[in-house]
Structures are given as C-alpha cells and as structure tokens.
Amino acid sequence: MITPNMHYAELKDSYLCYNISPKTGAYLQAHPGAHLYRMGIGDVSLPLCGAVIKALHEAVDDQADKARFHGYMPECGAPFLRGIIAEHYRARGIMLSDDEVFVSSGASDELGDILDLFDRACSALVIEPAYPAYVDANVMAGRKIVHLPSGEDNGFLPEPGEEARADILYICSPNNPTGAVFTREKLGRWVDFANENGSVILFDAAYEAFIEDETLPRSIFEIPGAETCAIEICSLSKTAGFTGTRLGYTVIPRALVRNGMRFNDMWVRNRTTKTNGVSYIIQKGGAAVFSEEGQKQIKENIRVYKGNAKLLMHTLDRLGIRYWGGTNAPYIWMKCPDGMGSWEFFDRLLNEIQVVGTPGEGFGACGEGFFRFSTFGDPEDTERAAQRLFELLSK
Predict the structure, then answer these.
(1) Nearest CA to 345 among 376, 321, 310, 380?
(2) pLDDT for position 15
(3) Are residues 54 and 200 in the same domain?
(4) Which of 21, 177, 256, 326 could form a disulfide with 372 if both were Cys (CB 3.0 to 4.6 A apart)?
(5) Are 359 and 344 in contact (CB under 8 A)?
(6) Please, which residues have CB within 8 angstroms of residue 227's CB and are 6 or more apart in sequence?
(7) Domain check: are 59 and 40 in the same one?
C-alpha cells in the first residue's frame, strides 16, 4: 500500500479559503446585490502598463514567424532577461553576475521550490506574524519550525538571538502582513547572525519597489556579507501587476556555499531537472518592466496604490488608531479597536460597512488583535471604504 506524505495532515486550515471566503459568500447570499469593499487579498487592480503590453504583443507576433519563433526556453531564464535584471541590480551598486539571477514563475512558486536545496533535517525560522506559506511549505516537508514572535514592542522587527537559531531563516521586508521594513543596521544583524551560525536567509523581497525611504535597503545584498548567507526571491506581481501572468526572479550568489556545496550550481541542476523554463512571451513582457519607459509606468501604478495607503493612514490617524506599514509597504497593519479580536473585528466590518480585510490571527498566533488592509484596491472603493470605516469607528 502506498503511504502518502502524512505531514499534510498536520496542516491547519487556510485562513483565507476556509474562513474569509465562506463568510463573504454567506453575506452576499443573504444580501443579494450588496457591494463589498475588498481590501483583504493582495491582488492588484490596475492593468499591466503600456510598455509591457506592447512587448507581450510583439512577442506573440514573434511566435507566428518561423525566423523569430521560440520553443523551449533556457530553464534558468532567457539570457536577455537575466542580463537585464542583473544590470538593474548593478545600477544600484550591487555587483551581480548574470548567472546569479534565475527567472521564475513567481515568488510564491519559488519560495516553495527553493526548499529542495535543503535537507529535511534542516530547521526553519519563521518570524511571525508571517505569510502562511512559509509555515505550510515546511510542515509539508516535515521540518522543525521555530516560531519567533514579534509585536508592538519591537515594531514587528525582532532581533536575532539564541531563540532564533535555525538553519533556514525567513525574512520578508517590507513585511507581509505588517508592512514593517528592516533598517540596514537591523538587517545587518541578521546577516551577521546567519554567517556566524552557518544559516541561510531566504529573503522575500516581493514588495521592495514600495520602499520610498532611500535609507532603507531594498535588497539584502546591500548589506555586507549577505552574498555568503542569503538567497533573494523577488516578484513582478506587485511591482508591475504580473499577478495573472506570473513572473519573478531569484538571486543566488555563487559565494553561497555550505558543506562544499554551491547553492547556485545546485539550483541550476534543480531547474534543469524540474522545469522547462518560463515562456518566451512572458519573459519579453518582463524585460519591458526594466526599460526606462516601463520603470516610469510601473512607478505611476505604484503611486496609485500609495495614494490608497495615504488615504487609509489618514483615516486611522484621525481615529487615533495605531498602525504599521503603508509608507514603505502596500499593507497597513492596524491594532483592532477597543480590544476586539481580529475575527470579531472582521465580522463587524463585513456586516456593518461591507468592508473586507484580513484578520491578523491568520498570520500566526501573535497576529491576534491586529488586522491587515491591502492597498491594491480600486481607488474609488478605497475612498468609500475609508469613509465608512471612519464613520463606524468614530461613533
């Protein structure tokens, strides 16, 4: 008899699929025609920018011409895109070689797949509140998980210490869900800690484009010593609206070595074994993101989302409610008013003002009592939701 991976039985129900969706579905069934102001899931609301659309159309036309047709793409990414991304880093003073960049189908896929590089005996540290997939991917693999709680006292940016000792260290900055961003000094302490203990940092930089404070690091490779202890996983989903087209990239320095094994070489072998690469059409669209025109256009879209954030922050400021994020991140992490629980607050917003956010408890136990708003929604909806929120909580 085949024995399945019994670790799947250890997974907790998804906070989204098994709680938010049924609650909103039940509300809509009971209130036909009601409009919900959705600020929960972090999907974007603006379309791909013009430079990307133009490149996608050109790439489709290429596939109709025998001389320009592309079949299988290099598993680690097309040389033209790897080079463009590496140059994007080099322009910011981070000296990467093209072969240290790997093109992926998105950060979510890569965050799971990258665990192939680590023995199942390796432990994983998750700073909570955290993106639930960090925990779930390691539960599926049967790994020991070290949960490091963070909170108001440290601004949701904990320091490394004995309680943080693990082989794999997850760091997300700007953070999902809290919106907190590590300073160079604080991130440097984690880099030093990893190098001292032989750990590897998985640095989730999916929201780096939202950092507007130039003193804050957008890449872990801005920190001295990171090249010997870190892997950076990036996404074009929120940066450029690729949530529906799926494209990202991963940086693995050649200097990252453990027990005589070079992680860059290992990942090359993994990708050439397990994938057939990302489609030519999507990679051409991705290349356009890094063009002068593309960078200008995606920044305009990001400015819209930042406008949503400013509106929500202004509302919470007027209400005297404490929050984190927003300025350098697309998420706002607020403290639930009047000591309410996060699911209690969710129900109140849904039933009284038809606003949908994400209860903090879904991101780990220390998220209880907090609530996340996404700023990727339609600006008009966000404005109405903010007005409703103020009217409800100012009574």
Answers:
(1) 321
(2) 58
(3) yes
(4) 177
(5) no
(6) 221, 253, 255, 256
(7) no
| Torsion over CA: 183, 201, 225, 265 (sign) | negative
Q: What is the pLDDT of residues 231-262, one digit of tens each?
A: 999 999 999 999 999 999 999 999 999 999 99
> What is the pLDDT at residue 41?
80
Domain termination site, one of 271, 291, 311: 291
**Whose CA is closest to 391, among 341, 352, 357?**
352
The pLDDT of residue 12: 83
Distance CA 356, CA 140 (A): 30
The span from the CA of 28 to the CA of 34, in Å, is 6
Percent of the chain at pLDDT above 70? 99
What's the rounded Cα separation, in Å, for the pair 27 and 30? 5
Indicate if 209 and 283 belong to the same structural domain.
yes
Q: Is residue 1 part of a domain?
A: no
| pLDDT exceeds 80 at position 17 | no
Of the candidates 291, 313, 329, which is a domain's last residue?
A: 291
Instruction: State whether 142 and 160 are in the same domain.
Output: yes
Tell me, what DSSP letter sits at residue 17? I
Output the domain CATH number for residue 124.
3.40.640.10
pLDDT in the model for residue 244: 95
Contacts for 221 with CB less than 8 Å, ≥ 6 apart: 89, 94, 96, 227, 230, 232, 251, 253
Based on the fold, state whether residues 110 and 223 are members of the same structural domain. Answer: yes
Looking at the fold, whether 317 and 238 belong to one and the same domain comes out as no
Tell me whether strands 331-335 and 323-325 are parallel, antiparallel or unpaired.
antiparallel
CA 119-95-306 angle, to 5 degrees, is 85
For residue 355, the cross-strand partners are 37
Cβ-proximal residues to 292 (8 Å cutoff; 6+ apart), any chain: none
- Asked if residue 367 and residue 327 are part of one domain, the reply reads yes
Give the model confidence (pLDDT) of 108-147 as tens digits: 999 999 999 999 999 999 999 999 999 999 999 999 999 9
Q: What percent of the chain has pLDDT over 90?
A: 96
- Band (pLDDT 50/70/90 cuts) for residue 314 is very high
**Strand, helix or coil at 387?**
helix
At 187-220, the pLDDT tens digits run 999 999 999 999 999 999 999 999 999 999 999 9
242 shares its domain with 189: yes
pLDDT on residue 240:
97
Number of separate domains in the chain: 2
